[in-house]
Design goal:
Elements (H helix, E strand, L loop, with lengths): L4 E6 L11 E6 L7 E10 L2 H8 L17 E9 L11 E5 L11 E5 L3 E4 L6 H5 L2 H14 L11 E6 L6 H8 L4 E7 L4 H6 L4 E4 L3 H5 L8 E6 L7 H4 L3 E9 L4 H13 L4 E4 L6 H12 L7 E6 L3 H9 L6 E5 L1
């Protein structure tokens, strides 16, 4: 019996950018134990997707070519594997696929019931849900685990700076931070200032202005915490004078200079800290974020929507570096 085929987008080697993506027909996968087969409605792109294509994570990912990229998806369960208890056929879900195997730019994909898959209520659209897993969980971990902020509004007031506040992770950080007892200063490009203010930021700086480049709070505040989401490298010498005595920078974009700074801090016994964020996604936290979205406390800013047949346009939009929020590919 011939295998059932589906449309997908894949690349066959490292590099190539949008031109390296090819439209292919591949067999629809079958769910194994504790897995579900999803008919995908939407997927979102992350910086890690094009980094994988560039070979940043070789030899761990991709495990083999051709490789179907993207891991953040929303869709409907159409088949369940042995042992699945949480979901049934017809359920709408949001999921993070296996990072090594990918699979999001396709009509169907396999998700694990036991990894990061959450029920999606009717109040949350497929596009909104697909934007959430990687970026939302990163934002949640940075704020709650690394910064110690309680999202129920309790705790002492903390002054927070968020760089890259209009980006895929940054726009979630702003919204979640304002659920806590925080004063939020944010940086972004001039054209996005009003958007970031609408997300709840108390102060917004254009990063290209002198004060924005220096990260200076317009109200003269020193920061308890900086959540550094911007892809551009900012030296410790720019962060340091803006921090309180025990302030810390949580770096979501670690590079070699990050680790050099950490070593120097420890040698000098500095009370100010640069802390790289090691992502450890947890399924229960995705449930938590989906509930926030259902209640209207959190939203996904959708930069643009592209059909799977035009996935290379979405890829080009991601790699040009000017996207606001999330780029969505729909099937």
């Amino acid at each position: 019996m011939a295998a059932r085929l589906m449309d997908a987008v894949a690349y066959e080697s490292y590099g190539g950018g949008p031109d390296g993506l090819k439209h292919v027909k591949v067999p629809i996968p079958s769910p194994k134990k504790d897995e579900v087969l999803l008919k995908l409605e939407a997927a979102s792109l992350n910086a890690s997707d094009w980094k994988i294509q560039k070979g940043v994570f070789r030899p761990f990912s991709p495990r083999k070519f051709p490789f179907i990229p993207a891991v953040d998806v929303a869709g409907e369960v159409v088949e369940v594997g042995q042992g699945v208890e949480k979901f049934k056929e017809g359920d709408k879900v949001v999921a993070m696929l296996n990072f090594i195997n990918g699979g999001g730019l396709a009509e169907f994909a396999i998700a694990s019931e036991t990894f990061i898959t959450s029920a999606r209520p009717p109040e949350v659209s497929a596009a909104e849900g697909a934007g959430l897993p990687s970026s939302g969980l990163t934002a949640h971990q940075a704020l709650t685990k690394a910064a110690g902020i309680k999202l129920d509004g309790t705790g002492l007031l903390k002054n927070i700076l968020i760089t890259g506040a209009s980006g895929g992770v940054g726009h979630y950080v702003v919204q979640l931070a304002k659920l806590g007892n925080t004063h939020v200063t944010a940086t972004c490009g001039a054209r996005n200032v009003d958007i970031v203010k609408s997300l709840g930021a108390d102060e917004v700086l254009d990063y290209k202005t002198p004060d924005g480049a220096a990260l200076k709070s317009p109200s003269g505040r020193k920061y308890d915490v900086v959540i550094h989401c911007a892809s551009a490298g900012i030296p410790w010498s720019t962060f340091e004078p803006n921090l309180r005595a025990t302030g810390k920078v949580i770096d979501l974009t670690s590079r070699p200079s990050t680790w050099i700074t950490i070593v120097l801090q420890r040698l000098s016994f500095s009370r100010k800290q640069l802390v790289p964020l090691i992502i450890n996604p947890e399924g229960e936290n995705l449930d938590y974020l989906v509930e926030f979205m259902k209640e209207g406390k959190l939203k996904t800013l959708v930069d643009s929507r592209h059909h799977l047949s035009k996935a290379e346009d979405a890829w080009a939009r991601k790699t040009d570096g000017y996207a606001i929020g999330k780029i969505i590919v729909e099937t």
